[in-house]
Amino acid sequence: MNLKAVVWVTFLTAQCAFPILCFGPVSGIAAGIAGIGSLIHVGIQTLKCRVMVCCDKSQIHLDFDGLQRNLSHKLHGQHLVQKAVLGHIKGHFDSIDPHKALVLSFHGLTGVGKNFVSRIIADNLYKDGFHSPFVHLISATKEFPHEGMLPFYKDNLKRWIEGNVTKCERSMFIFDEVDKLPSSLLDVIKPYTDHYEHLGGVSYRKAVFIFLSNAGGTEIGRLAFEHWQSGKKREDLRLSDIENSIMLSVINADNHNGLYHSQLISNHLITSFIPFLPLEKEHVRACITDDIVKKYRWHFRNRHEVPEEYVDEVIQELNFYPAAEQIFSVTGCKRVSEKVDFVMIDKVLPKRKSGEL
After folding, report:
1. CATH architecture, domain defined by 64-275
2. pLDDT one-digit tens code per residue, 270-300
3. Where are the domains of the chain?
4. Number of other residues whose CB lies within 10 A of the CB of residue 316
5. The whole model's pTM is what?
6. pLDDT tens by residue, 145-169
7. How far apart are CA 92 and CA 94, in angstroms?
8. Would strands 320-321 and 328-329 be described as parallel, antiparallel, or unpaired?
9. Strand spans (E) along 31-158
10. How far apart, in whole angstroms, are the C-alpha atoms of residue 251 and residue 215?
11. Residue of 262, 208, 259 whose CA lies nearest to 100
């Protein structure tokens, strides 16, 4: 304390019967300075987040109503997926302190909506959806093509997950073509999905891991066909009817890749195995109609305006199985967009009247 400060304190003490009352303004000044400091910090942080992308509410908006609406209206024929995805996502993000990272494993044949649902999730949880710096899509065949480089891949994957979660605890990792990944590579992920409170001072409990896999798709198709043969409604199928069959199919996979004997399974770290059922003709028709409205929105304002004959022509370009019954689409909705382009290219579309939107 300098000489001026000593003189000032001595003077105040001499003048005041109750020094605490006199020192109140001094305390107030100190509090004011602290408050100004806090405001400056907030201001700097706000300015920083305008220049850079921050892991806060401006980027992670958690639109659960939008998620439910999109799953209900845009995803066709997947009642099991709608309920399971919404329930697990909402439960995990609503929790202030989840016990572990959310790990969802999507299973089904090609074209049934696995990638589509992961995109819907990202679009409704992150401001920039798939383009958010906190959403990470990893393709097995693109990122890990060489078996001989497995030690290198393991080290990179470990550092990559740690780096991204350190930047944002609400990071989402989507692994596509998991059935083509060496199972030992997936074991690298195990610690980050476990119940540890911290690893190296970082909590991974709020992160989300989504695995997309064709493994188990054949088994799901078999169960769906048997259910159809029995005359039961598709919507009567329950997750519990299929989930265990998926897990057994994945564990006993012939190629020994993906989740085969993975520590993620042996340690029960998969939150849910979610089956995507093969799509029937009515579901493919809905996909066709959606695609036509999306591409020709100036001609068809809603699904009901799309002529049935247009949809019929596209259906004729797609294949269904079994050969006799022709129930399920071989490629789901995957080839719908290109077949819509093929059929619609020579159509004379109805013209809108002047003034119509």
Report:
1. 3-Layer(aba) Sandwich (3.40)
2. 999 999 999 999 999 999 999 999 999 888 8
3. 3-13+23-51, 64-275, 281-344
4. 9
5. 0.83
6. 888 899 999 999 999 999 999 999 9
7. 6
8. antiparallel
9. 102-107, 135-139
10. 10
11. 208
